[in-house]
Amino acid sequence: MKIFKFIISKIFLRKAILGIGMILLLCMANYITFTATRSILSTFQGYRETEYINQEGVYTANLDPNSHIDMGVISENGTQAVYDYLNNNFNYAFYTDGFIVSVPNSYDMKISLGYMNEQYYRLNEFELSQGTDLDFDYQLDGEIPVLIGKGLSKTYPVGSTIKIDEFVLGRPVTLKVQGILKQNTYHSNYYALNSKTYYNFSILIPVNEAFINNANMDLKLNGLMDIITLNTTKEEVTDLSKVIKDNMGLKFNFFSQQENYDYFNEYYLHSLKIIAITTFILFIVITCLSIWNALVSVRLMLKDFTINLLVGLSYSKLRKIFYIYFGILSFINLTVIFIITAFNRYGCWLRKDATFATYGLFGLIGMDWLSLLVVVLSDIIIGMVIVENMLRKIKKVPISLRVLQ
Amino acid sequence: MKKSLFRISDVLELCTAYMFCFFLNLLFNYVKIMDLDSYILKAFLKNFTDYQEIIVLIFTVVVIVFHYQMLHRKKTEIFCKMLVGDTIFNITIRYALNCLMILIFVCLLSTLANVYLKFNLISNFYLTFIFIIYILISAREVRKYENF
Q1: Quick one: which of A19, A268, A385, B10 is 20 to 30 A from A113 by CA?
Q2: ipTM, two decimals
């Protein structure tokens, strides 16, 4: 330890610019690795979550990009006719969210309401930390059983009620808390799998046929955008598409399992490959720059290392000192990455951004920790390459030449 | 370059360091105007383009390291030049001019590339300004080696 302190204070710190240079380069390598790993993990998480739509007989609705929504053409009766057709001929999963309401809570967050039908609820298998499963056979004029996120559980424990004035039914309603979702339960966007909405400050409301029939146009129209038909055939969804076109003037496409799979391979896998390759190239470039920086350090510190080697320092001890030195530099960088991530996560709480607020140690969630682990592994690789190169460079110069310096 | 502290390898090294920084800046400008279909790629690249200035500034550390090690390596040469009648003022001026020449050459190349690709030149000028500051600071450091 004494020799380590001596080498750090008398050799490395005397040329601090080189150390700072190394920290900054490692910081960039860590940031790139962390960002890429998190993007890839988040996309795979999203893919895993939406695996249920990649099944035989499942078709996902998608508004054709060339079809424009003309609210003058879309009527209440036309929309209802589409839902009547759906109810009579299909088994479908309905989900829509993003309806923001003001509900008093201990964090002053704006609350997002999500609406889902029984099929969607069964497909997603929501995990609860408290309470019981949702009941979809409720009376519209009574209390509506709901699931809430962990952030609301203190203010609204299981069994309590929440009064909401602005509601899709056009009248105030009372919601009864039936269960509390596990912390950080999320929903991935079907068309941007790496983008997530966290349910920590959401209320999930079960909808049944009567609910949809009495709801306003916003809910009906938004729900139709991502509707998932189950156990159907291509012909049946083509007919449904025609019904929507005739009644609402909108062109909807329905994608099958194979089409979704092809889309994933073409779009997501291609993007993930580009991210992985770009990250790898940048990682190699930064490693090369770090090696150059390390060799510059050796060139400038060669005299000091030689003196210490002559008075009894062994190469194995020097290697150990180098590894500890790079361990410290890596630790500093990891701390920086950790602080930036924690600050970003905590920023969602400060901005009262309910859809991104997450729970965890300093706000970090599972994929953040996993990405940090990958960063640690990448640091070990860079550290080994740099230290071994430094030692090789020192050994390469004959001791007689070093003494002359 | 007759009395210069720079050798061919030093010129190439500094050129590469400058080019790396200017190229990185150019790459950022290019990524910003890229019309990407993929949301994942857009979201991934946004993590970098949002911090373009900071990231490019961090990478300019390679130029700082170059100046630092260059002067350290040349301290004997500076002292010897003075022994044979050169002055520290002339050595400093020559050093700064050499660095500026290399910078102007790389900066011109980068400006041409930016103009060709119709990019905004502001970030290019910022970078040049930062490098000029580095040159001036390192030129001041030459005085440190007046006494060997």
Answers
A1: A268
A2: 0.90
Question: Which is nearest to B11 in space by CA: B103, B87, B120, B83?
Answer: B103
As a whole number of Å, the CA-based R_g of chain A is 29
Q: Residue with structure tokens 């194995």?
A: A316
Q: If you average pLDDT over every residue of chain A, what do you get?
A: 88
Are the beta carbons of A300 and B59 separated by less than 8 Å?
no
Q: How far apart are the first and last CA of chain B?
A: 23
Structure token digits, residue A269: 């896998």
Q: CB atoms < 10 A from the CB of A231, how many?
A: 13
Residue linked to tokens 């602080």? A339
Q: Are B10 and B69 in contact (CB under 8 A)?
A: no
**Per-domain boundaries in chain B:** 8-145
Asked whether the beta carbons of residue B65 and residue A293 sit closer than 8 angstroms, the reply is yes
CB pair distance less than 8 Å for B64 and A35 = no
Chain B residues with CB-CB distance to A19 below 8 A: none
Residue B85's contacts (CB-CB under 8 Å, 6 or more residues apart) are none
A336's tokens: 């920086």
Write down the domain spans for chain A: 2-50+262-404, 59-255
At A113-148, the pLDDT tens digits run 999 999 999 988 889 999 998 888 888 888 999 999
Q: How many CB atoms lie within 10 A of CB A398?
A: 9
